[in-house]
């Protein structure tokens, strides 16, 4: 397997939408939108006038095998900023082949190039497979925060 990583472009929207559907299946989320709707959302949210996130894509040749979606948080430590990894996902067929590690290395490079003070992320408490992976990277659990969420009703 030869893995290449590059930022997602507008031309990647359909492949990314299909991978996001696989991700939803992994998390046992019910299908929400048709592929065409997902593609349009990705085009608007990632490549529209106000992008809400950035995405790195991992490919094995032409086949999309993984993604890392991230944004920046400010403030982090003092008045610095951090790179926040929202989602790291590797296609089931490509797991345990180094794709996640390569994506994490690229994220760290992006953070360093952007002058971030740290890289941060969360994982579900039940996702022990992800926790084992992050532990193997040398990451440490930061238990100094409690995670909150409020829902915004759909219009």
Which key terms come to mind for this protein?
single chain; 155 residues; alpha+beta; Aminopeptidase; five-stranded mixed β-sheet
Mind explaining what this structure looks like?
- With 155 residues, this protein is an alpha+beta fold.
- The protein has one domain (3-136): Aminopeptidase, CATH 3.40.630.
- Helices cover 33% and strands 23% of the residues.
- The protein has helices at 13-26, 35-47, 99-113, 128-136, and strands at 3-7, 54-60, 63-73, 82-90, 118-121.
- The protein has a five-stranded mixed β-sheet, sandwiched between helices.
- Helix 3 (99-113) links the parallel strand 4 and strand 5.
- Helix 1 packs across helix 2.
- The chain is globular and about 40 Å long.
- It starts with a strand and ends in a 19-residue tail after the last helix.
- The mean pLDDT is 93.
Known CATH architecture: 3-Layer(aba) Sandwich
Report, as a whole number of angstroms, the end-to-end distance.
Answer: 44 Å
Q: Shape, please? A: globular
Q: Tell me the name of the CATH class.
A: Alpha Beta
How would you classify the helix and strand content by structural class?
alpha+beta
Tell me the name of the CATH homologous superfamily: Gcn5-related N-acetyltransferase (GNAT)
Estimate the mean pLDDT confidence: 93
- Helix tally equals 4
